[in-house]
Amino acid sequence: MIFGTRKTEMPAREDALPGRPTRPHLVGDRHLVTGNPLETDGPEGFEVAVVGLGCFWGEEQTFWQLPGVWSTTVGYAGGYTPNPSYEEVCTGRTGHSEVVRVVFDPSVLSYDDLLATFWENHDPTQGMRQGNDRGSQYRSVLLTTSPEQQAKAEASRDHYQAKMSANGYGRITTEIKPLTEYYYAEDYHQQYLVRNPHGYCPLHATGVSYA
Which active-site residues does the annotation give? Predict the structure, then answer.
């Protein structure tokens, strides 16, 4: 328990850390793999997806490897505290989840296929944890950027729930809701496994196929 708040419980909005009006840290200019800008929505016609499926270090790599992905960053979203630091998110008092922001070309990678990658690379039934990583920051979330994404995300959850149930898994706990704010994580978190090739990269996939 930290500051009297359990890290595996969502704080009430009024109990969340206050944050600050501006970002307390720097973010790099270019993606270390694709070479494209980090703080961007990409070229015209591209889409943005925001997903949380546990520790963002390894999961960012999962998405930048997909054909059609133009850029990825990691950050914090889904909670209350404006412009949080990593240390604040780790207290469980911001309400944010660790997330990956994916800029992609929908003519190459559909949102449905991106969702399949999301479901197949973690266990979405674990609530406020992913494997040994425990806390609200590790919860499973889909934060949508359009009504079309919201509808597809909800349909994909129902489809995958049937697959999970058939394989003996429980209820999916993934939050699906519109994105309100995305806060970029510190520079040293961006493309972490490029900076640290042997760094921590937990795998919690269920082995259940989305197809």
Answer: 55
